What we know:
The chain is α/β, with parallel strands linked by helices. It has helices spanning 16-24, 58-67, 86-105, 112-120, 122-125, 152-158, 171-183, 188-193, 197-202, 211-214, 222-241, 253-258, 260-271, 277-287, 303-312, 316-326, 332-339, and strands at residues 5-9, 29-33, 140-145, 162-168, 248-252. The chain has a 5-stranded parallel sheet, sandwiched between helices.
Amino acid sequence: MARPLVFVLGTQRSGTTWLANIFDSHPECLHFYEPFAPAYRLFPYFPDEFQRVEPPAPALAARLQSDLPRLVSHRSKLFDPVHATRRQFETEARLMAKLETAYRRLHVAPLRFAAQFNLLHLNRIGQKPVAYFEKGEIRITAIKEVRLYFKSTFLADAFPHATFIHLVRHPAAVVSSMDHHMKQGRLVEIKSNIGRFVENVGAQEALARHQPVLERVRHGHLFDTLAAYWRIANEELERDLGSLPGRALPLTYEELATDPLARVAGMFAWCGLSMAPSTDAYVRESSTSRTDRRTELDTNRVSALYYRDWVAKVSPEVLASVDRVCGDSPFMARFEPFYTRV
Length: 342
């Protein structure tokens, strides 16, 4: 039996986009890319990313239970939002991209429906050429989101049939990648907000257990702060999802990268899906091709080498912050088998 709703959770730059693309490539999966991004106002009432939400929260749960199924209406304004043909999808994708770009160039807030379409399909339209995944009978809905690490127990309570996949990646790679992307003008949201992470987390009694980690962060030190973000977010997910037996699947990015076909097949079996030919083809193409990077979402790489490349080129400053803040995290032992082979 398929699991009807799967949340793909993790931190920024942990491989969640690749995992999202893998889900989207399956004909029986309906995928939504980061619908909780606040700028797109799909859930304008949803609490801030750094705010923990404890269950029960009946008013918030009721609104989300009503609004989450309506996400499908934002997938298309012109065609069947699930079963549009390749030509229809590509036509709408070009139109929505031009609309949003034109409004932004005029320094005007873009049309909301265009921006929302582009957000929900970002893992498709970020590829060149635009990725089209044909859909059949939908058995599961997958939501990839990097803003829910303090809200998994609330989601589990609000959606009793929901399940969760927690993807975690070596903190040195995450911190280095986030810094790299922020310097290039990407990750605008987290760049704008990461400076208040320590203060916001420290002010919440429900997160007081992380105070010793917060005390290691030097004031105004970006790498320390990013390392604390990685550690606290992932340890909260690990702790909370550990209280949901049978409903959570932990996944290490390095493990996925080393043997993607086997790991994806196991993940889909856990979800109640068989490996589809389209997914098999996508995993092979996205994990074993060495190509020039064409877009910010281009995932083509030799995955078993790529994950090690990131850590190998990390600066001494990043490594020092990761060791200072994350060195004694229980997660660190999971990465040793992969990086001792370098």
